[in-house]
Amino acid sequence: MQAGREFYVSMCPLRLIPKIFLFDDEELAAEVRAQRVLNKGRLPALAKYILDNPDNYVFSALTASVDGEMIFESIHDEGPGMRAGQIRIPMDARFLINDGQHRRGAIELALKENPDLGDETIAVVFFHDTGLSRCQQMFADLNRHAVRPPRSIGVLYDHRDEDSALVRLLVLRSSVFTGHVEMEKSTLSSSSRRLFTLSALYFATQALLQGIELENQEQAVSLAQTFWETVDAAIPEWRLVRERKLSAPEIRRDFIHSHGIALHALGRLGNTLLRESTDPAEWAPRLAPLKHVDWSRANQDWAGRAIVAGRVSKNHQNVTLTVNYLRHHLRLPLSAEEQRVEAAYMRGDE
Q1: High-pLDDT (> 70) share of the chain, %
Q2: pLDDT digit string, tens, across residues 68-89
Q3: How far apart are CA 129 and CA 132, in angstroms?
Q4: From its phi and psi, is residue 211 left (phi > 0), alpha (psi between -120 and 50) or beta?
Q5: How far is Cα of residue 81 from the mean position of the Cα atoms in its chain?
Q6: For residue range 160-212, what is the model confidence (pLDDT) as tens digits?
Q7: CA nearest to 112, candidates 50, 68, 21
Q8: Taking residues 3-12, what's their average pLDDT?
């Protein structure tokens, strides 16, 4: 019982999910639908998640409304068994998913590629459909307080993603990051004693090692550690924070080099050097000009590049413009796309 209404929880074989659960007609106006329009672009990734992880994928329960009679027959007339039994629903009843339509779509795609998944089950919560307004309210209530977890904690807890494992090892091993990375939140408060976020370091290191062929994860961690420690040698403020001569809030307030946009730009810059050679003896000296970069927010060169309307901006275009600025200091050529973005910036295009 919930809010004075009966509801039922059942385990349904995956093969039945596409057959009995329907979507609202996408051509209907939003006000006469009880569900958002299905975003089909999300389905391949969800289906791939099931197919790639047949032994440890996790899907939470679907929630559905049943527009038809539901008759429950308990195993026992009293005691704990009275809440377990069979629910009988006419085959002409209409099933409407209130929550989980993308999971349902992904299950259908995965079954086409691997029919053996059909014997596995997923929990389904059944409510009695009392009309469109109730179904719409259920959708609103189920999604009202849904909050996507911060990217940092996703990296921290993801043991399936090799890049997540790599960056966790990097934080553990490198003195540049140990104790100075916010492991849970993806944004830092003005008073935080951390310099970096785990999510920012994740994307920056991912950009650094993209397309670099290495034999194993140990080599990747070692190479990433060497790169970031070489960068650290060119940014004295990071060291001063570790020595407690400056505070992390001061550095984040006055400089941009610990922000996600700068880390990502440095990662892309390093990727260019590593593609030529992974030998530190060859690429490390080429990072020396970073010592002469003015990373302070007061530097007007960052206006429109890394700083927009007084705030550090990390959209794709601003990352590219920051990369361009650093390439100029290291005398590295721009790619065709970087030249296009740079030309638009110089013309003053938004």
Answers
A1: 91
A2: 888 888 888 777 778 888 988 8
A3: 8
A4: left
A5: 43
A6: 889 999 999 999 999 999 999 999 999 999 999 999 999 999 999 999 999 99
A7: 50
A8: 88
Contact 150, 185 (CB under 8 A): yes
- Asked whether 53 and 160 are in contact (CB, 8 A), the reply is yes
Sign of CA dihedral 331, 228, 345, 334: positive
Nearest-angstrom CA–CA distance, 132 and 292: 64
Q: For 27, which DSSP code?
A: T
State how far the Cα of 83 lies from the Cα of 73, in Å rounded to an integer: 9
pLDDT of residue 132: 59
Residue bearing tokens 């600025």: 325
The β-bridge partners of 72 are 87
Mean of per-residue pLDDT scores for the chain: 89
Starting at the edge strand found earlier in the chain, the sheet holding 62-67 runs: 7-13, 121-128, 62-67, 94-99
Across residues 60-73, what is the average pLDDT?
Answer: 87
Listing DSSP states for 38-76 in one string gives: P-GGGHHHHHHHHHH-TTT---PPEEEEEES--EEEESS
Catalogue the E-assigned strands of 186-333: 196-197, 307-308, 311-312
From residue 117, give the alpha-carbon distance in Å to each of 22, 27, 48, 62, 108. 20, 31, 13, 17, 10
